[in-house]
# Entry
Amino acid sequence: MNTAPASETPVLRVGLLGAGTVGSQVAHVLLTRAEELALRTGVRLELSGIAVRDVHATRDVELPPQLLTTDADAVIDGADVVVELTGGIEPTRTRVLRALGAGKSVITGNKALLAESGRQLQDAAAASGAQLSYEAAVAGAIPIVRPMRDSLAGDRVERFLGIMNGTTNFVLDQMDSTGAAFDDALAEAQRLGYAEADPTADVEGHDAAAKTAVLASLAFHSSYTITDVHCEGIAGMTAEDVAAAKEAGYVIKLLSVGERCGDGVNLRVNPVMIPREHVLGGVRGAYNAVFVEAAAAGSLMFYGQGAGGEPTASAVLGDLVSAARAIALGAQGIPLADYAALPAVSMDDVTTKLAVTLAVSDRLGVLARLAQVFADHGVSISTMQQTEDPRTTETSLLRLVTHTGRHADLMATVAALRGLPVVRDVVSVTPVESGEGAHAGAGD
Ligand code: HSE
# Structure
């Protein structure tokens, strides 16, 4: 225990970039719990400056006006450690590089920046010996970056499946539990503050894809960017898709997946059906979870709040305490181990199953014609159910689930079905995630 008098405790100046929902909570803790943090770290964390866009803006937390400035460079230059919570790519990247270049450790929650320029930031940190920490960038409060980087460093991660976007999980959960249409569920999410006025980054899967790239880089000891992640959002999901999945014992989730595939790794974000009894099937509302399968550890589940001021500030402060301890001990940052350089494998080569709903003419020989298309593509049908089409008496609905196959073959089958005169409409195509591991071993 550090028993040095407060006056003798070394001081670490913390420069904060951004005082939004998360930044203001970080500032609040630094201002009100300095003594406690000093006992934990052996150094006094002194908030030395807060860079904001508008010093007069209304904030959740009252901040000392003398700390607020619009001059981010001055905050960086006057700090020993920089906490970046502004988001965006530029001018943030330039500022983070300025800090790292000067040997100042950086704590960031900026998944978009890491998923675009992570390698550049890691190189800058390695060159100066600074630490680059980003627990808050993936799944908010949930400790997953550090477990992936440190706790599982001696194991071999086979894959992770994550619900890493709370907005879309809230929307899908609303649709599942109330039968709401997508637009209505999204409006409810916006009303309750779970979705932004412009929800594009969440709804289109970009936010989850950035997190997937960041987490996969640690899991598979390789450097990935957001362009390595196959990304589909949830805007096309209908109340009928969700209801049909529910009836079959599944729930639709926007899943972030990183898994070994042949000699590489497939990274994807897309809405999939997972069994309701799978641990991820029970992740409700805006909560996040990451399910990890590792060779020795087996299955691990990380669950908690993926957004919000206080929860995300918890992750930032954890990084800050950790960085302060390392600085106090004179330790350097831990470089990203990306020696494995496993290539990102195309979605085409992933083994998956599809649930397909077709509106078809209900007459003699239709099923035989459809079955022939599946057989021609080497795709086997697992289950099939025919019901009346609630929209019209002219067609029936056929819900088919395939056995596993190469994704490209499954999609070619769907394209061929679409071209058949007896198929009036391909109503939905949703991958099915069994929740069981399908490990094809890429070595590292
Ligand atoms: N908008 C994100 C979410 C939180 O809904 O999970 C920050 O990435």
Residues 165-167, 202, 207, 306-307 surround L-homoserine (CB under 6 Å). The first strand starts at residue 11 and ends at 17. Residues 154-304 form a domain with the Dihydrodipicolinate Reductase; domain 2 fold (CATH 3.30.360.10). Residues 226 and 301 are 24 Å apart (CA to CA).
